[in-house]
């Protein structure tokens, strides 16, 4: 399910273009997993994050990171997949985790070019959904998104955590 090491770093180059300015050569660890277009993928993403952060011995922001990963993956599955997406293709959503000495970034890539829209205003406070990006902003130190260029289409939504 996951990949680590230099192949991961090569595939993440396109992701870094929209991340905050952190020296890319200082990435100490990176991991990635492909997620199928099913809501069970949210649980798989949390489990992958839990295992990866445990392997990296990063526990201080564990609950915050897992919550944010859940929200980002849920948003990608709910809002970024075309309704007529054929099953059996490569998984359309990918979770990337990148660790620097004092930073951790989780990034979710999806096939949509549409910008994410944050809900969570006063009128949305009692809504059943629509607060995902509000939660991402509340539990991470910063977040953002950018469209992918080159052979990759879609976008990446990322969240940064200080360790």
General description of the model:
There is one protein chain. By secondary structure, the protein is α+β, with helices and mostly antiparallel strands. The chain has helices at 6-16, 40-55, 62-79, 132-139; strands at residues 2-4, 29-35, 93-99, 103-110, 142-147, 155-162. The protein is 33% helix and 24% strand. A six-stranded antiparallel β-sheet has the order 1-2-3-4-6-5, with helices on both faces. The two termini are 26 Å apart. The protein is globular and about 40 Å long.
What structural keywords apply?
163 residues, alpha+beta, 24% strand, disordered N terminus
Helix and strand composition category: alpha+beta
User: Helical content, roughly?
Assistant: 25-40%
Beta-strand content estimate: 15-25%
Provide the gyration radius in Å: 15 Å
| Overall pLDDT | 79
User: Separation of termini?
Assistant: 26 Å
Output the strand order for the largest sheet.
Answer: 1-2-3-4-6-5
Q: The biggest beta sheet, please?
A: 6 strands, antiparallel
**Total helix count?**
4
Tell how many strands the DSSP assignment holds. Answer: 6
Low-pLDDT segments? 1-12, 124-129
User: What characteristic shape results from the CA principal axes?
Assistant: globular
What order do the helices and strands follow? EHEHHEEHEE
């Amino acid at each position: 399910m996951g990949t680590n090491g230099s192949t991961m770093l090569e595939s993440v180059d396109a992701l870094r273009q929209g991340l905050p300015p952190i020296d890319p050569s200082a990435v100490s660890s990176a991991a990635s997993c492909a997620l199928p277009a099913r809501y069970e993928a949210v649980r798989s993403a949390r489990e992958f994050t839990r295992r990866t952060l445990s392997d990296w011995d990063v526990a201080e922001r564990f609950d915050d990171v897992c919550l944010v990963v859940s929200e980002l993956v849920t948003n990608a599955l709910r809002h970024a997949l075309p309704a007529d997406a054929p099953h059996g293709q490569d998984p359309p959503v990918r979770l990337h985790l990148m660790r620097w000495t004092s930073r951790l970034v989780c990034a979710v890539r999806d096939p949509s070019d549409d910008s994410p829209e944050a809900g969570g205003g006063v009128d949305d406070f009692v809504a059943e959904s629509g607060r995902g990006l509000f939660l991402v902003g509340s539990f991470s130190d910063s977040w953002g998104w950018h469209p992918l260029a080159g052979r990759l289409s879609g976008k990446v939504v990322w969240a940064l955590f200080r360790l």
